Amino acid sequence: MKVYIIVIEIILISFLIFRVYKLSKSYKKLGKEKSFIEKVETVLSESLPKPVAMIVTREITMFYYLFSRKSNKGMVSPYSYHKNVGYKGILIVLLTVILLESVGLFFLFHKWSPLISWIHVVLNVYGVLYLISDYRAIVQLPILLQNSELFIRVGSRRQITIPLNQIASINGGGKFFEEKKNKDVFKGVLLEFDTPQFEITLKQPITTTGILGKKQEIMKVYMTVDDKEKFRRALSVGMGRLI
Description:
Blueprint: H1 2-29, H2 36-45, H3 50-67, E1 78-79, H4 87-112, H5 114-140, E2 143-146, E3 149-154, E4 158-163, E5 167-171, H6 176-179, E6 185-188, E7 198-209, E8 215-223, H7 228-239
Parallel strand pairs: 6-8
Antiparallel strand pairs: 1-2, 2-3, 3-4, 5-7, 7-8
Helix pairs in contact: 1-2, 2-3, 3-5, 4-5
């Protein structure tokens, strides 16, 4: 009986090593053009159902950006989008509130149920790690304007790639609060209570994928960058017309 168990374990381990090897080769073939998130999602989608692949990708991504020290140096036309809104300060305040709340509720819950108090702590620790990882992804994944395409990333939350020849018009973002709940709107902003600088209307829908693999047809994009005028000039050059 022990022999059969050992044989089954060897087969399973061998299969796992083979799958990891195949995934590693697929990952390397994708090159440096795509971000870490895009490459992991592409590779996992080959072996897992789309919703599962998306969830696993988000978890892997969280730990990747939590420890990654990748620099923006060498990127073509990177545009940050977190400095002017003071996102770092907002994050520090939010983390402080979460930690203080965790301590207070831990003792409150512990009197009622030690198990629930520890579950609450674990969930809050996870939330803190996610927020820190998301901030590091925001810093490491700026908006890019290259190869006649506009790459808009909001940390590890969402992203969209827009060919410049698919842009119909660019206006101010004053209509954001009226339209942000529309299903065909992509929110390329960190803080939804701030008015975006740009409203980009597309000629044709561009498909994006949500966190559970749900497809979304985008016709309008709202976005903000730290250096608004530099971005406007670069976009004008890329599109071949003044905006």
